[in-house]
Amino acid sequence: MCLACAVPAVAGSPDPPELPSELATLEVAAIEPEASFVEVELSGDSWPGLQAKDVSFKASRLANVDLSGAALERLWLSHCELSGCNLANLRATGARVQTTRIADSRMTGIAFAEATLSDVTFSACRIDLAALGFARLERVTFEDCLLAQSDFLEARLEHVRFYDCDLTGADFRGARLEVCEFRRSNLSGIEHVSGLRGASLEWPYLVELAGVWAAELGIGVLDQDEAGNEAAGPQRGER
Known about the structure:
Elements: E1 24-25, E2 36-38, E3 40-43, E4 56-58, E5 61-63, E6 76-78, E7 81-83, E8 96-103, E9 116-123, E10 136-143, E11 156-163, E12 176-178, E13 180-183, E14 199-201, H1 203-208, H2 210-216, H3 224-231
Parallel strand pairs: 1-3, 2-4, 3-5, 4-6, 5-7, 6-8, 7-8, 8-9, 9-10, 10-11, 11-12, 11-13, 13-14
């Protein structure tokens, strides 16, 4: 495992989204299935519980948009910026999120099962209890995000970086990591720590997790007093 390797930062950075200098301000009463929005700006729109398939946003900006509890199967975001949005409990199975930045948004319970995320940055987002089972993440960065009890079941992570994140109780069962970094992030109580194979951590966090790894490997820990007593026992040649 390269968990204990002291290596420099190697995970690739996401490419930033490219948006035109001017966007069309759009007022949308409803979103229909297969709706496509290109080079638009939406602000303050509210569609909680919306259900629509194959909706796409390209080269667009969404600010303070409410899609909580929506079901947007195969959602497609490309070269987009989202800020202050409410995406809590959004179900986006099979989504494609490409070259996109999401900041200061609430994403508790979001379901990105079987999604593909590439060149994506999440900044100061609440993404706890998220489901990313069987998702593929490439060149994704999480900065100052809450990811407690999030599920990365069988997910594939390549060039993914976690900076100043809280991953308490996150589940990496069956995950496959390649060139991934965890820096200044809380990994206490994570499930299936063996899923972190392929990641790099800073030394203090490796030490903090030593007990977790020992337990998962079935390694017992001797009490220091017991070890001392054993050392004080009869020596070779003594009767």
